[in-house]
Amino acid sequence: MKTVYLDNAATTRPRPEVVEAMLPYLGERYGNPSSIYGIAREARAALDEAHEKVAAILGADVREVIFTGSGTEADNTAIKGVAFANRDRGDHIITSAIEHHAVLDSVKRLEKHGFRATYVPVDSYGMVDPAAVEAAITDKTILISIMHANNEVGTIQPIEEISKIAKKHGVYFHTDAVQTTGHIPVDVNRLGVDLLSLSAHKFYGPKGVGALYVRRGVRMDRYIDGGGQERNRRAGTENVAGIIGLAKALELTAAEMEHEMERVGRLRDRLIAGVMDRIGHVRLNGHPTRRLPGNASFCFEFIEGESLLLNLDMLGVCGSSGSACTSGSLEPSHVLLAMGLPHEVAHGSLRLTLGRYNTEEDVDHVLKHLPGIVEKLRAMSPFGAVEAGSGEGTCGECREAQQPVGGRR
To answer: Is residue 398 among the annotated active site residues?
Structure first.
């Protein structure tokens, strides 16, 4: 059976060129880059080159890039590191209600240490209002953390506008760019951010390695104590092979970005239009235009997302019902609830995310089978069968939030 992988927001297939670049550092070039002999100097030179590549693509200085063990670690380092280093200035943090749990749980942990937090709401598109961010700022605010784009619904946030607000008030600004790096342009100076997190396995690199951009002059404590690696900002022997893979993957995606944005965007629009045309009682989640090129997120009324995923899996289609990091939870997505969806509708979510290995045939395979799966599950639903394409039975909140795509609903 053919596998149609449509969960690229969860992880991506490493590119062959990336694996090839990593292999020497998993074998004969195994030296510790902190040592001084030949094979160690080879590893150090490769690390230095990786710093230079990543910094150049982000528009940063090479000294502003820290390699980490994941995007989650980068988020934790940014938020906790800035909070504790600037506690003498204030104790207030602003974030949004739809952040990844790496951000939300970091902020909640800080609240247990006496910090205060404001979680600004989003609209029905999952969009943060910059005015709401500015209204939340106090003279004790030390950090704002708003994601570049949401991992579940794909909405791209107005980061440049928010960064200007943060700068005006003298507040550090962090963005979680795990979903955007490698997929849309990410330039730290154009965005105006002070800190930015990314993760290699989201753009065809290896798992277990990420990076954090920290603008020069930002006060930030170390999150991991120990040795003096990463210019004394992140202790622990570096994952040399993983870092080489991250830099190679980012280099490749940056070179192909314009073409891939357009190609993957066409596939996304084909998928969204097909689903909205062929299936009734369905809602497109996220902003209709300000969204990631590969993200298609839906809610299907009267069915459970888990049952939908299992039926798709039997046909070789890999998708998700929200974020991979919370897929073991029985609770509906906190993102969809924050966008105003009722619990019973949020439970029927399906996220299909496309990438560089997807084709029109993949999209057509889904469109061929998904309507029948939905019809079958609805016929079994305790809510009772509904006539596909009919508006009857659609909850009022969902009707108001239904979003047209290409003239279709």
So the answer is: no
